Amino acid sequence: SGNISSNGYPENIICEWTYVTRHGLQFNLEINMLEMEGSKTKDPPQGCQSSVLRIHSELRTDDLCGQQEKSYYFLTDSHWFTIQFISLNRQTKEPLRGFQLLWTVVQVKSNETDNECL
Question: Which cysteine residues pair off into disulfide bonds (predicted)?
Fold first, then answer.
């Protein structure tokens, strides 16, 4: 297990982290703090144009931005994931904290069953 975080909310920065574990294992990610510009939920949605926290696994990519009050969970679909933190030209100067993420390695539960006739 471990954590990844932005050191505050710097401007004009692109950071990338990639983690890999053994085949047969996955990562469970918990974003327990997200305070960035943009929003995918406001009406109208602003999107993640100037800042994004992108979580990418084999077949899944989630783009996060804005401010979240509750933890966000992401279970990878493979034995690796990549996090990108992109903060371009900030539109606001309000003090935002960026993000904090905790990751743990979890055992994949197999959906395979024996082909025996019972």
Answer: 48-65
Q: What are the b/e assignments for 44-62, b being 16+ CB within 10 Å?
A: eebebebbbbbbbbeeeee
DSSP for residue 105:
E
d(CA 14, CA 86): 5
Helices H, strands E: what count in the chain?
0, 9
Reported as a single tens digit per residue, the pLDDT across 23-76 is 999 999 999 999 998 876 665 556 788 889 999 999 999 999 988 889 999 999
Domains of the chain with bracketed CATH: 2-106 (2.60.120.290)
- Residues 89, 81: Cα–Cα separation, whole Å: 26
